[in-house]
Amino acid sequence: MKIALVCPYDLSQPGGVQAQVFGLVDRLGALGERAWAVGPGFSQPDRPHHSIGSAVGVPANGSIARLALAPSTGRRLRAAVEDADVIHVHEPFIPLASWAALRVPRPQVVTFHADPPAMIRRLYRGGARIVHRLLQDKIVTAVSPTAARPIHSLGKSIDVVPNAVELPSEVGDLADREPQVVFVGRDEPRKGLAVLLDAWRLVRPQVPEARLVVIGPERLPADADGVQTLGRCSDDEKWRVLARSKVFAAPNLGGESFGITLVEAMAHGCAVVASDLPAFRDVASDAAEYVRPGDPAQLATALVRLLEDDRQRLALAREGVERSQQFSWEKVVHIYRRLYDNAIRL
């Protein structure tokens, strides 16, 4: 089977959608399928992909999305997918690559990754007939109930297929962990690092031996005592840090539709403290402790409790390890492979 996976975001930049697209390319290839990524960006020479040109930064959801907006995007995309038996379109209503892909007359699976802002929700409602017509002959999936909720009104059947992570072959000793809290995320306000740093100032006097390790952002305030920043590090280094730490903090303020970092933390044996967001509950269920978004005092209380109470931490960590098994690549790639077959038979 020949599968083109269309990503609207810059393939040369790190991101959740890009990681899922290239993860599927790798796993489908290992199963003997011919799969390739299609999208803007140029710097993936070691993986099958077709670039459809450069990307332009566009503000979106408290971040900068790098998209293909050139007039030639549609023509280049059609050339990149012309040999495909099935096209897997990620984020189908993100311009311009995904828009163009929807109009290619091939069997298609589409995947919604995001909980869209109010403006896009209104577009779904106001343009429901047009949106439904674009999707009517396609298999529709979403990565979580949160991502699926806005499109239920379109009257389409939606398969919830979660994002996948690379699970460790073994977790190691959950009891023998360093008094360490880990944050992983981009340096954007909605990721909540400022809230976590405010909470950390309350944690340090109570647990002076504890450390906070920040992965992603490059710079921190000068008064961030007991904080180490690793910046953008490799996945292997990130996993090593998680595997020796007691607690993972996800202080996000909103705009989340999944929570891949929560799954990675659970898989490596961290007890998770997360903002009480619908998407995070979708992912972690009872395998995390939840706090009000934007409340540093409540976050600090939860962190101190798990750093000091090994019995509670271990119970939460064990539940998280078990929960993370639902998000293995082995399970997810076989689900999509079946959906591709179904799309071809439609």
**Helical fraction:** 25-40%
**Helical segment count:** 13
Which geometry do the CA atoms define?
elongated
- How confident overall, as mean pLDDT? 92
The SS-based structural class is alpha/beta
Helix and strand sequence: EHEEEEHEHEHHEHEEHEEHEHEHEHHH
The biggest beta sheet is recorded as: 7 strands, parallel
Strand content: 15-25%
What is this structure, in a nutshell?
This protein has 346 residues and is of the alpha/beta class. It is 39% helix and 21% strand.
Tell me about this structure.
The protein is α/β, with parallel strands linked by helices. It is 39% helix and 21% strand. The protein has helices at 16-30, 73-81, 97-102, 118-126, 128-135, 145-148, 193-206, 235-243, 260-267, 278-284, 296-308, 310-324, 329-345; strands at 2-6, 34-39, 49-51, 56-60, 63-67, 86-90, 108-112, 139-142, 158-160, 178-184, 211-215, 227-231, 245-250, 271-275, 289-291. α1 links the parallel β1 (2-6) and β2. The radius of gyration is 21 Å and the shape is elongated.
Features:
about 350 residues; alpha/beta; 6-stranded parallel β-sheet; 13 helices; 15 strands
Strand and helix layout:
Layout: E1 2-6, H1 16-30, E2 34-39, E3 49-51, E4 56-60, E5 63-67, H2 73-81, E6 86-90, H3 97-102, E7 108-112, H4 118-126, H5 128-135, E8 139-142, H6 145-148, E9 158-160, E10 178-184, H7 193-206, E11 211-215, E12 227-231, H8 235-243, E13 245-250, H9 260-267, E14 271-275, H10 278-284, E15 289-291, H11 296-308, H12 310-324, H13 329-345
